[in-house]
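We were asked to recover a plausible sequence for a given structure. The inputs and outputs are reproduced exactly as logged, with field labels preserved.

PROBLEM: sequence recovery
POSITIONS: 194
GIVEN STRUCTURE:
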């Protein structure tokens, strides 16, 4: 049996604790998040650009939302969740490691079969395609600028997702996954109308 000195064990534990408490995301996690945000932005914009004005404002017979209403909701939700990320980073750091829930949370947020009662239903006040796309792009630009800071402790600050407690990194995954969810809803709406 190998013996360790008390000093070496304390030193190893201390190094582990510093790394765990820094809350920084790994290079791979950061790369994945940036790619996920970019891909979901491009997919949504391509879907919207393919819509004519009639499709943009059409509401399906199943009481669903029009693409315009989906887009209004996406813009509202991204703003609210991103504010939650920034608020979380101003709170004291915690020690809960929620990273094992990343994949589960991404699946839940994008699953259209899993209905969620939103606190941000579309109001119908702003349905201009141009204005909503501009607001969406401005939101993503702000998020990408925010993420230029590679030292953000996103894993040790927490907020609330639609599925419970989430770290700030996971809330950013929610932003990307949420736009994917509603891109799929827009595609479903167009398929129902055609």
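RECOVERED SEQUENCE:
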């Amino acid at each position: 049996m190998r013996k360790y000195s008390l000093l070496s064990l304390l030193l190893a534990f201390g190094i582990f604790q510093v790394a765990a408490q820094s809350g920084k995301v790994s290079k791979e996690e950061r790369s994945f998040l940036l790619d996920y945000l970019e891909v979901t932005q491009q997919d949504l914009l391509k879907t919207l650009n393919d819509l004519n004005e009639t499709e943009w404002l059409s509401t399906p017979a199943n009481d669903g939302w029009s693409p315009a209403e989906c887009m209004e909701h996406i813009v509202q939700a991204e703003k609210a969740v991103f504010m939650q990320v920034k608020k979380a980073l101003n709170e004291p750091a915690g020690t809960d490691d929620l990273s094992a829930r990343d994949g589960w949370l991404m699946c839940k947020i994008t699953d259209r079969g899993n209905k969620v009662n939103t606190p941000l239903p579309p109001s119908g006040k702003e349905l201009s395609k141009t204005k909503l796309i501009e607001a969406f792009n401005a939101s993503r630009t702000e998020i990408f600028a925010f993420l230029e800071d590679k030292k953000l402790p996103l894993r040790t600050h927490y907020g609330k997702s639609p599925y419970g407690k989430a770290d700030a990194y996971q809330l950013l995954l929610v932003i990307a996954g949420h736009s994917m969810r509603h891109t799929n809803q827009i595609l479903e709406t167009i398929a129902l109308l055609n």
